[in-house]
Amino acid sequence: MEKLQFIVLTLVTILSIFSDQILVQSQVSLEYVRPPPRRIITTPHDRPEAHPQQVHISLVGKDHMRVSWVTTDKNAPSTVEYGKLPGKYDMSMTGEHTTYRYFFYKSGKIHHVKIGPLEPGMTYYYCCGGAEKEFSFKTPPSKFPIEFAVAGDLGQTEWTASTLLHINKTDYDVLLLPGDLSYADTQQPLWDTFGRFVEPYASRRPWMVTQGNHEVEAFPIIHAHPFVAYNSRWIMPSDESGSSSNLYYSFDVAGVHIIMLGSYTDFDANSAQYKWLQADLAKVNRQKTPWLVVLLHAPWYNTNTAHQGEGESMRTAMEHLFYNARVDIVFAGHVHSYERFTRVYNNEANPCGPVYVTIGDGGNREGLAMMFQKPSPPISLFHEASFGHGRLRIQNLTHAHWSWHRNDDQDSTVRDDVWLESLSSTAKCKGTAGDQRQFKPIGDEL
Ligand SMILES: *[C@@H]1O[C@H](CO)[C@@H](O)[C@H](O)[C@H]1NC(C)=O
Ligand SMILES: *[C@@H]1O[C@H](CO)[C@@H](O)[C@H](O)[C@H]1NC(C)=O
Ligand SMILES: [Fe+2]
Q1: Is residue 25 one of the residues assigned to a domain?
Q2: Which residues surround the ion ligand 3 when the cut-off is CB under 5 Å?
Q3: What are the Calcineurin-like phosphoesterase domain coordinates in residue numbering (predicted)?
């Protein structure tokens, strides 16, 4: 049996690598000479069995943090000790743990502990499960300015290492990831190497993620249940945002309401995700959170020849909700390049629609998506196929600065940047769904 599983998984891997190669080769453009994909780094486990590994943190509710980690030792406690001074832990919280199986793989003990209440803009020192290794993180501020790092389709290659190094070089508050994390693609030990790979960064700042196609990991009949590894390892604050699924949720941080959606779960008008999104948008108070940002994996707007049309059914189902709620920015991944659109609604430039950004260029093993449609449609303002990351600095309730930083080997270079104004303060866009007289959605037959 084990041999059979090995053969099946090997075949799957070979097939997926092979199809990626074909994709890359067919997309090589003559205009650019882009660096090729770089090798995968497999970060080893070099700590004792009871010691925490793969430590990462995420925001939960107004003033709590979830600390997640894995131990090989099944008896290691799910406890976090923490405090404001190094080595002095005057607070302690105990949480929960889980494990999962995937074919013949059995995960380590995956711990999740909610700690808090925490003060904003404060450094905390912590250790997990009684092991002496100390970590620290900084909580985000409670007021503007706040800075988000944004990187999608991360993987665990030398390019990923370069992207994360650049992200870490300048201080930021929260990392936002629009899907495709480990590229384990059913090979579960690659989830563990990914956890170790990102720990130096994900244990210092909250990482808020949503899932992509590489997280699905369903296998017909034998492993029909999708997202098993993702849902066990990357628990996000769905309970706290009234969502019944870890695949979509929202959170507030320093005057920004952020919604994370699932591109690979139901989204039509009768679905639980649609109803949750509708209710969540209705609750947004733009006085309290003037900025409204959405992340999802498969882009609704995309002029790259890769993955054309893959976000279209979700766009058709949900775009009017974004438009009526005056969503400011939508980040997507999936396409391995960078692209920024103007404000768009229903395929046309619209001053009250969201700005769409594709940022699937974190550094995964598949390489870049090189080819864009020609001529470039006028709603697409900038695109480039290079690895990199984005920065969203929300300056105050009206202004934010967006920049895209390309990996130029040792350095990162700003290749695109723009000031954005929140739609909550744009006089002609202030109406919402309730005010249809003034803001009749264009092209909406309903
Ligand atoms: C990230 O940046 C911090 C602060 O400059 C530094 O202490 C830390 O070593 C960096 N981490 C890595 C992995 O480079
Ligand atoms: C918000 O920030 C922008 C850009 O820095 C600035 O021009 C504007 O005056 C600020 N608005 C307020 C109310 O401070
Ligand atoms: Fe993807």
Answers
A1: no
A2: 180, 212-213, 334
A3: 148-338
